[in-house]
């Protein structure tokens, strides 16, 4: 189990480096993975201080999942699929903010899962592969992670949220 936890911690660090590469700000592992008063696995650092961010990042790097597991033999969603269980965790931890599930496994592309309504906030003219399906009344989207995030800057992301009242209040109060 320790090996799996270390693999997860390394994936969080690598994901933080990818975010820094494209968004220009350092993203670090949240101590105790969701500890502090910050939700999620990663938190941005600005002026050497952790910041509340409108996106809650949940990172998973585990073997044993496959997109085919999303669906049962009868064509319905398979709630036992690890991806859907991780998504439930991301939504629960997001506390009204935007949940982003970032997941991968060895020798595989890293993917990002988000709500379609959030995807629309960011979607650019660039076309790329994505998977969309209805999950408990909400459409969710899965896209290649790095290809998606490289379209935006840190401040573009913040600008998208200034009109969302609950997130604006969280950012103003500086607490989850």
List strands and helices in order, with pairings.
Blueprint: H1 2-23, E1 26-29, E2 42-46, E3 49-50, E4 55-61, H2 82-94, E5 98-104, E6 111-115, H3 116-122, E7 131-135, E8 138-144, H4 145-149, H5 154-161, H6 165-173
Parallel strand pairs: 4-5
Antiparallel strand pairs: 1-2, 2-3, 5-6, 6-8, 7-8
Q: Uncertain regions: pLDDT < 50 for 5+ in a row?
A: 163-176
Q: Strands of the biggest beta sheet: in what spatial order? A: 4-5-6-8-7
Number of domains: 1
Q: What gyration radius follows from the Cα positions, in whole Å?
A: 16 Å
The H/E string reads: HEEEEHEEHEEHHH
Strand content: 15-25%
Main attributes of the structure:
five-stranded mixed beta sheet, three-stranded antiparallel beta sheet, alpha+beta, 176 residues
Describe the structure.
This protein has 176 residues and is of the alpha+beta class. It has one domain (2-173). Helices cover 36% and strands 24% of the residues. The protein has 6 helices and 8 strands, in the order αββββαββαββααα. The chain has helices spanning 2-23, 82-94, 116-122, 145-149, 154-161, 165-173, and strands at 26-29, 42-46, 49-50, 55-61, 98-104, 111-115, 131-135, 138-144. The longest helix is centred in the N-terminal third of the chain and has 22 residues, at 2-23. It starts with a helix and ends with a helix.
